[in-house]
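quick q for whoever's on today - can somebody do inverse folding on this one?? i tried earlier but teh output was garbage lol. tokens:
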């Protein structure tokens, strides 16, 4: 796995700007992307976070030797945008609905019943 650090990514970012590879999302959940190489080949780039370290892997020759490549630099920008959109559009679960009402017990006595989302508590 390739450790993502600004110092090691500088040349790769410059090359990605020159080559302008096409990046396609394979799976946002798995953080997997397909990146077109300089000769038109498609390489798979995956991202992961482990123990606070941001890591990447690429199926190109440089990536297989755990070296930074422009495929990772190009996919990293798309990954940041995709993951931030996912966080922004994450559904917010509604607050539980709590209802209190007076009911009659089996012996006829009045009882205060409390329900949370339809379940008696």
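ok took a stab at it. sequence:
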């Amino acid at each position: 796995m390739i450790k993502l650090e600004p110092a090691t990514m500088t040349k790769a970012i410059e090359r990605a700007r020159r080559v302008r590879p096409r990046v396609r999302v394979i799976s946002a959940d798995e953080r997997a992307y397909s990146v077109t190489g300089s000769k038109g080949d498609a390489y798979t780039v995956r991202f992961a976070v482990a123990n606070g370290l941001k890591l990447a892997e690429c199926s190109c020759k440089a990536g297989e030797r755990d070296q930074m490549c422009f495929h990772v630099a190009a996919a990293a920008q798309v990954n940041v945008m995709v993951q931030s959109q996912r966080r922004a559009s994450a559904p917010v679960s509604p607050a539980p609905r709590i209802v209190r009402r007076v009911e009659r017990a089996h012996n006829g006595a009045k009882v205060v019943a409390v329900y949370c989302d339809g379940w008696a508590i």
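fwiw The chain has one domain: 2-88. also The first strand starts at residue 2 and ends at 3. so keep that in mind when u check it
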